[in-house]
Amino acid sequence: MISDSESIDQQVYIGAESCNKLKVRLVGNKLSDEIATKRIKKALIQNNGEDIDSHNRQLLHWNLMITNISKKNLNTSIITELYRIR
């Protein structure tokens, strides 16, 4: 499970090689049950009707973004809104 809270904001590293890893922020908001249900239905269709494993099903309940903007400059809710209007 990602988190029991309604949002997530933490530093993570991305990249395959340890010398080239990039420090970024993983920012996310938990979606409403209505939106998550729509995402799950769409994923089932894209998966030719086959079931989705529990980990991927949990991920469909979240709107996740990666950014290099620091917490000092923008909080989670502002980043979410900026991504929404992109």
Question: Could you characterize what this model shows?
Answer:
This protein has 3 helices and 3 strands. It has helices at 33-46, 54-59, 76-85, and strands at residues 7-14, 22-30, 62-67. Strand 1 (7-14) and strand 2 form a beta hairpin. The longest helix is centred in the middle third of the chain and has 14 residues, at 33-46.
List the topology elements.
Elements: E1 7-14, E2 22-30, H1 33-46, H2 54-59, E3 62-67, H3 76-85
Antiparallel strand pairs: 1-2, 2-3
Determine the fraction of residues in helical runs and give it as a percent range: 25-40%
Low-confidence stretches: none
- Total of DSSP H or I helical runs spanning 4+ residues: 3
Through-space gap between termini: 28 Å
Shape assignment: globular
Structural class by helix and strand composition: alpha+beta
* DSSP, total strands: 3
How many distinct folded domains?
Answer: 1
Mean pLDDT across all residues, rounded? 90
Strand content: 25-35%
Instruction: Output the strand order for the largest sheet.
Output: 1-2-3
Main pleated-sheet profile: 3 strands, antiparallel
N-to-C order of helices and strands: EEHHEH
Rg:
15 Å
